[in-house]
Amino acid sequence: MPKYIVVAGGVMSGVGKGVTTASIGKILQEHGYNVTAIKIDPYLNYDAGTLRPTEHGEVWVTDDGGEIDQDLGTYERFLNLDIPKRNNITTGQIYKTVIDKERQGEYLGQTVQFIPHIPDEIKKRIKDASNSYDFVLVEVGGTIGDYENIPFLFALKSLEREVGKQNLSYVLVTYLPIPSHIEEMKTKPTQQAIRLLSESGIFPDFIICRAKKPLDVVRKKKIETYANIISEHVISEPDIETVYQIPLDLEKEKLGEKILKEFGMKSKKQPNWAGWKNLVDNILKPKKNVKVAIVGKYIDIGDYALADSYLSINQSLLHAGASLNMGVEINWLDSKIFEGDKTQENQRFSGHKKSHRFFSESLNVLRDYDGIIVPGGFGSSGVEGKIKAINFARINKIPYLGLCYGLQLAIIEFARNVCGLKDANTTEVNPKTSAPVIDVQPAQREILEKSMYGGTMRLGVYASVMKDKTQVLKLYEETGRLLEDTKRLQELIKDKRHAFRIGILTKGNKIVLERHRHRYEVNPSYIALLEKNGLVFSGYYIRGDKTKLMEYIELPEHRFFIGTQSHPEFKSRLGNPSPIFYGFIRACGMKK
Ligand code: GLN
What we know:
With 592 residues, the protein is α/β, with parallel strands linked by helices. It folds into two domains: 3-277, 3-Layer(aba) Sandwich (Rossmann fold), CATH 3.40.50; 288-588, Rossmann fold (3-Layer(aba) Sandwich), CATH 3.40.50.880. It contains 20 helices and 21 strands. Helix 4 crosses helix 5 (114-128) and helix 17 packs across helix 20 (579-589). Residues 376-378, 404-405, 428, 517-520 line the site of glutamine.
């Protein structure tokens, strides 16, 4: 039977519950255990797919096509695992399942009630996601005391009764403020969080104390007395420079051993943190730095939302840098400044990080960068500016990485300026273009006409057959990410629900897997023309009806000009970086 570790947050949101959960998982992995993590999101949305990224952070996409909360991304990045969508539980999903079951007569005439039917469904979902693991971390979203948490806490208490307290532990992640006017660390909000938790019958076994500074003995003692737990289980987690330091810091407090002891267990292997520590050192003190411009559209944002809406790209650049011992300075450029839009000139982003500012200069500003990225996006806003930036990167031989929309717009740029199709466009921007080099597939057109937006894009992992001797293939080979006959590929082929993700394969095909989230595709009728003019399609997916959907492009004579229809940022992990990002950062670091 798996052991459960429930992680709940007190005092306020945003204190790092997700990274703490992921760090506990990483620690248990290092001690030799098989771990998974579940995120509970108490909102009514069925999934995160229709949530505005500027409000909620970027949408995370799983292998099996889930559009999920970012915390699942944090787990994958720390644990180097592909976590399926069932590991994200929302209130909306629970209610929908219960109501669907009721409509299908599955409750056999019972009165369907909040208790027990809602908590029972929650428990079922947790157990379904748990089998075959030694440890299951369950992170409860929001903050203790939120009304919407109640059914989940109730369900977890009931799970505790079912599996026995010896198989379930509670971790409270709390925050200790140091108000500037008194310069003293306060424990009262934590005491109140403990009390609120106890109202659900839950008493924490561990309290992880987030704060600006380490916890001192006096405060530790206060919390120990108030929560009635031994002081060794009050763990200090002060602010750090990179979240990847957290497992190392928690291990300094011997958290792994303490958790295992709580369950009456011992380490299965001696943890070896050398590799992880080395990567963290590279993040903190890189040998060399490169500067990357991410040219995107930024509208309707408050001051602090920007970094989060492209979190996975930031992380992928960081991971690639860590493996190459290179630091990456990221600057966010609003593509509209390249369109000569005066209202956007001089607009400066006053975010919390210096490196996330808007700049007001025109295209020449791009000369200051070692590389340029055009990230994923939707709609027509800022598109012409992005195309200009791509043109600049192509002509000036600056490393360019196009992610999803970034590939589509690179094709438009190439079609216009190399193939002479002046009107080339995507039908997403101009449905009447005479050269629709990027177009929507018929099945997707129907979906759009019916406004069925939730969960209907081309989502999740798809196989790409790679073309020999291409730069992209080489990158996947050298980073060990190529799949020919590996377990993961076989798993997908065998799973009837997901076999379509593999498409049609021929023996000996070199395959890579990346995740997707888009509706539009390279229009097959323009491929021959683009190829004739020198664009190389380095990989494609072959659909069941034999249609080839283009997955990668590259320009052979360019230092690094690569685009992908996928989002490789969803498969980047510390110590196992995305091949494309790795190649990009390496190219950025090379002499011009
Ligand atoms: N808007 C484009 C499409 O739907 C690209 C999407 C993306 O970049 N994720 O195909």
